[in-house]
Amino acid sequence: NILVFGETGTGKSSLINMCAGRELAGVSSDATGCTFGSRGYAANIDGQDVILWDTAGLNEGEHGSMPAQQAAENLRTLMLNLANGLHLLVYCVRGSRYRDILRINYDMFYRAICQEEVPIVIVVTGLENEDPMESWWHVNKADLKKHGLRFQDHACVTATRGKALKSGGFVFEEEYARSELEIKRLIRE
Predict the structure, then answer these.
(1) How far apart are CA 95 and CA 159, in angstroms?
(2) What 3-state class would DSSP assign to 124?
(3) Largest separation between any pair of C-alpha atoms in the chain
(4) CB contact at 8 A, 15 and 53
């Protein structure tokens, strides 16, 4: 059981589709989330059967599809009731500067609910224009650590292929393919 959590619009559903190698979870570019509850998707990652749990986005604000408190409570309930337990937390964040909400969500799920007993990794999305994508980590890892966010591992990725090209393929096809390999490595390890 792998729980993917984070704010609305960070690419959680896209990340699940990338891991599964097919479109399972609904995605949207709307300001409010399109995932209203938690749903598990069976996938096979490098020969290992897993259940990837897509979750409602956190911190949508008062106009979101689900109130923040309800989204947090739904996640907490799911985490405590998973058959066979929870094996990995994947914290999905957009590649931007540090904001306090990153620590608040981290503390709530990793420290308070999981009591630091479940491994946690961070996946930083939206890095398709970074060259290399990994450069985000080198610039920001000290700031995350300074604010008490520690992860067993990380991946800097794009969760989108981008616009379709007239010649076939997509704008970020190469970056997406590298990201898919990186995500699968992260989960496998």
Answers:
(1) 12
(2) strand
(3) 51
(4) no
